[in-house]
Amino acid sequence: MREILIIGAGRSASSLIQYLLDQSESEQLQLVIADLSLELAQKKTNNYPNATAIALDIFNEKERRAAIEKAAIVISMLPAHLHIEIAKDCLLFKKNLVTASYISDAMQALDAEVKKNNLIFMNEIGLDPGIDHMSAMKVINEIREKGGKMLLFESFCGGLVAPESDTNLWNYKFTWAPRNVVLAGQGGVAKFIQEGTYKYIPYTSLFRRTEFLEVEGYGKFEAYSNRDSLKYRSIYGLEDILTLYRGTIRRVGFSKAWNMFVQLGMTDDSYVMEDSENMSYRQFMNSFLPYHPTDSVEIKTRLLLKIDQDDIMWDKLLELDLFNDNKIVGLKNATPAHILEKILSDSWTLEPDDKDMIVMYHKFGYELNGKKVQMDSQMVCIGQDQTYTAMAKTVGLPVAMATLLILNGKIKTYGVQLPVLKEVYLPVLKELEVYGIHFIEKPMPYLGYKYS
């Protein structure tokens, strides 16, 4: 039996674990599912004989190393900043490693040692990053092989609520880490390139500069820019491309409404609000508004945000119960971002029967035989339930598939890497189609950005 150590049994691990359990007999696998919560790890074994649950505190070096030393390969489903100690131990015991997270500088610094030891540390093999890399590289390489020259690449992805579970005015619910949603776009200017012209969007304007997308069978969406699109030029070998843009997908109208929070200062995570524990939702709202001897909090909000009486923006604020003086924040030493996350969680938490949805959309513009053409590629995945969500499926399945490819010697390139090579993306994308994760590609007229 070949032992696979899976560290972290949270929401993102459910589809990953089930896939490997299903393969455990034919592939001679023994799964060791490790988590700080033994109960959670035990639940994820699904009573399979080929799965064992262990309690693991990753900050306990002795425990951590003992678990890693016994494994044939290690999967880390921990938060990104916790991978590095796992990675160092994998290097120490000469074990291959798979994660779904972005390659950090600390992880990249291990590359030479990983190669020297003939190891594979596969990262960014989840959804975004992951499926976006693989599906993009497949098409980009096909265009190159035809003799085409890439002119434009745009890539968009979003975790949303499925149409049948879309029951609020924001057309949005938390399908993943709420904190990441509240802090989205902060920490630097958004950078991209259009028709050879560099473009920059500061955080204060980010949610008012959106691009619209039509997804067949699902209607219209919008996308706001991700922070740094330019780094993908080297990753995808697109150093000479004229247009490169990556963004996050939401339903139309979300960004304009979210911008109200940005303008008020509610997404700020840089300072703690006094006596936040005893603050009401109404007091929280009022703390960002100017004093007025007679105007109510509602009137001041309307005036500051320039919301007309019949504007749906007002209804969106009311739906969140932001003006309720009886609801208490109840968080000690909280930042505005923490409090906003708490308030939104009241309204945006998925109900037990709700389903989530992943939407991914690529645009490829290129020149072939002297003619400019474009192809769009779309993928929609709907979750099964609250355990096997679309997010868990699209993050976990590629991780599991890559793990088996490495274990079976099908991936032969050593080093700290992401899935941009054919030996990785071709078999993973092909198998993902069996699980209903497939892209629909169709030719489009090349429009570009004439007046960039």
TrEMBL record:
Q: Which Pfam family is one of this chain's hits?
A: Sacchrp_dh_NADP
Keyword list, A-Z: Oxidoreductase
UniProt cross-references to Gene3D superfamilies, sorted A to Z: Dihydrodipicolinate Reductase, domain 2, Domain 3, Saccharopine reductase, NAD(P)-binding Rossmann-like Domain
Q: Which InterPro entries match?
A: AASS (IPR051168), NAD(P)-bd_dom_sf (IPR036291), Sacchrp_dh-like_C (IPR032095), Sacchrp_dh_NADP-bd (IPR005097)
Q: Domain named Saccharopine dehydrogenase-like C-terminal: which ranges?
A: 126-437
Every Saccharopine dehydrogenase NADP binding domain range: 4-121
Which PANTHER family does this one have?
A: ALPHA-AMINOADIPIC SEMIALDEHYDE SYNTHASE, MITOCHONDRIAL, SACCHAROPINE DEHYDROGENASE
Protein name per the record: Saccharopine dehydrogenase
